[in-house]
Q: What sequence folds into this?
């Protein structure tokens, strides 16, 4: 019950962010990278770099960053290849989540699912005034860290966070029956309909 309530609250919160950003979410690039396993909307075509990421046990791992910037807003997806370190899925997510919490004040945090894959999502206020929406998941032997960051007072980067999806190697998305996820989707749609009625 506790998880369901938290999910319902997050759905309502996410709806608020999505609606607040809808006016500026026009003409974004629908970016998909099947090789690593994700798709997401960027305001412009992202740059791709190869970087090094340190695992929870200290090993250097190869990672790719997908990065775009527009009007002071920054959008980045980091994909870390954990195929050489079997069994570190849980600790990898925990390490990334701890680093995210340490990066600023946690305004909101929930353990949510992305295409049936569970991981933490954050709303962070950083000391430099920037506001961040972030998602962390582990999929296809890789750690995914998506961060949308905007200056204080700007529209939250909800279009970026809410558009993220996961992709199998054959290009299909994860599927499955998930009652909690379906309940959250119904709650989201009902809240959206209520907002639309109130706006009329």
A:
């Amino acid at each position: 019950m506790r998880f369901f309530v938290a999910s319902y609250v997050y759905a309502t919160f996410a709806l608020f962010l999505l609606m607040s950003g809808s006016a500026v979410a026009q003409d974004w690039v629908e970016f998909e990278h099947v090789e690593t396993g994700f798709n997401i909307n960027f305001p412009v075509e992202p740059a791709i770099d190869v970087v090094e990421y340190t695992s929870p046990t200290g090993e250097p791992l190869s990672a790719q960053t997908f990065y775009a910037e527009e009007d002071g807003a920054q959008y980045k997806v980091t994909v870390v290849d954990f195929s050489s370190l079997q069994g570190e899925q849980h600790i990898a997510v925990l390490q990334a989540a701890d680093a995210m919490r340490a990066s600023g004040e946690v305004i909101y945090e929930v353990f949510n699912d992305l295409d049936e894959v569970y991981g933490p999502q954050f709303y962070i206020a950083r000391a430099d005034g920037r506001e961040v929406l972030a998602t962390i998941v582990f999929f296809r032997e890789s750690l995914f860290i998506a961060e949308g960051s905007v200056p204080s007072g700007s529209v939250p980067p909800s279009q970026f966070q809410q558009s993220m999806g996961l992709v199998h190697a054959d290009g299909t998305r994860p599927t499955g029956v998930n009652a909690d996820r379906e309940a959250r989707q119904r709650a989201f749609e009902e809240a959206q309909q209520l907002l639309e009625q109130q706006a009329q």
Observations:
- The chain has one domain: 2-169.
- Confidence is low (pLDDT under 50) at residues 1-25.
- The beta strands are 29-33, 38-42, 47-54, 60-70, 73-81, 105-114, 117-125, 131-139, 142-150, 165-166.
- The first helix runs from residue 2 to 21.
